[in-house]
Amino acid sequence: MSSNILHRPLTPADLAQVADLNARVLGPGRFTRTAYRVREGAPAISRYCRAALLGSRMIAAVRFTHVSIGGTEGALLLGPLVVDPEFAGKGHGRQLVGEALELARADGIRLVVLVGDEPYYARFGFHPVPPGQMLLPGPVDPKRLLAAELAAGALPSFRGLIVAKRA
Fold first, then answer.
1. Cα distance between residue 167 and residue 1, in whole Å
2. Taking a C-beta distance cutoff of 8 angstroms, is the pair 161, 138 a contact?
3. What is the pTM of this model?
4. Burial of 116 (0-12, 13-18, 19+ CB in 10 A)
């Protein structure tokens, strides 16, 4: 990783660059994904959202959204995580996610969920959610619904529909 790259919290001034990076990396089909439905109407930034910048150029970003699961508070939805293809595989995504998870743990967040690839996210403690334990407002491959306990034993207390906390 280059020492010229700054990792820091996202700010409202970053939103245009985040949108551009998401469009370039994920394409227009991203809006049809179920995780995007969860985030609709939620604040664009939480204190866990992070960015990596090379000068003024955003090269990676991750978003975290406060959610309740079956009415139980204390959880976050991770995603999207995007890295400019020119900087992929250099650890920026891993560092952003790791920093945010440590902050969330320190703040008392008990669980983080996401829709993603277990081989990538397992390094952070993410594993598939038991089938039927959590629901999303649309279709999702159950093997891709992952959760990481930030508080030991938290997973069983989160059951039901995943809903973003609105503004």
1. 36
2. no
3. 0.92
4. middle
Give Dmax (Cα) for the chain.
45
Q: 9 pairs with which residues across the strands?
A: 50
Q: Residue 97 is encoded by which pair of tokens?
A: 């996610």
Beta strands in 19-93 (DSSP E): 50-54, 57-69, 72-83
Supply 153's token pair. Answer: 């034993």
The sign of the torsion formed by the CA atoms of 54, 12, 17, 165 equals positive
Where do the domains of the chain lie? 5-164
Residue 147: left (phi > 0), alpha (psi -120 to 50), or beta?
A: beta
- Going from the C-alpha of 68 to that of each of 39, 42, 109, 166, the distances in angstroms are 12, 12, 11, 11
5-164: CATH number = 3.40.630.30
pLDDT in tens, 89-133: 999 999 999 999 999 999 999 999 999 999 999 999 999 999 999
